[in-house]
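Notebook p. 47: complex prediction with heme C.
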Amino acid sequence: MKLLHSVLVAATVIAAAPASAQFAKPEDAILYRQSAFVLMGNHMGRINGQLKADSPNVDAIRNSAAVIEAASKLPYEGFIAGTETGGARATRVKAEYFKDAAKVKNLAEKMQSEVSKLAAAAKGGDVAAIRAQFGETGKSCKSCHDDFRKD
Ligand code: HEC
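Predicted complex, structure tokens below:
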């Protein structure tokens, strides 16, 4: 019984560990969030390329939209204290990001909702609907970059 109790306590401690415990060093957290954004940017670019093609490959768009949807949930964990500056690849985050959690959450949720709609439109397969939703998704990325990313 005592052993079981210790195991349960240990499990609870692990589950409650702060996000910072996932990263050995601050630059690992920066690289983690940048990596998620790189995936998102790369696959937005691929969708853009398909939408410019004479006959867009809807399967490829669907795959890219699914990658963006999955990756869009990841970056936030990497914005831990101590990562306002620095990074193996210098971070471009603005200091304001760490001071206005409500605004960040709002912009992140807006982007999340547009990305989900993009994935849904891609599943539907209507190229005009995908194109319209791609534009809305891009705007939701840009509005956060305008406020919280340098350049
Ligand atoms: C909630 C705010 C927010 C939203 C929404 C957002 N970004 Fe970003 N993005 C950032 C910040 C902050 C950085 C800088 C991260 C760093 O350097 O530490 C960034 C960086 C990037 C980078 C550069 C990554 C690198 O290091 O090379 C790309 C590409 C990118 N975002 C794409 C996207 C795309 C595509 C979307 C929409 C699908 C998006 N972002 C939505 C805040 C956001």
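Notes: The chain has a mean pLDDT of 92. Residues 30, 33-34, 37-38, 40-41, 44, 68, 72, 89, 91-93, 97, 104, 107-108, 111, 115, 137, 141, 144-145, 148-149 surround heme C (CB under 6 Å).
Next step: compare against the earlier run before touching the bench.
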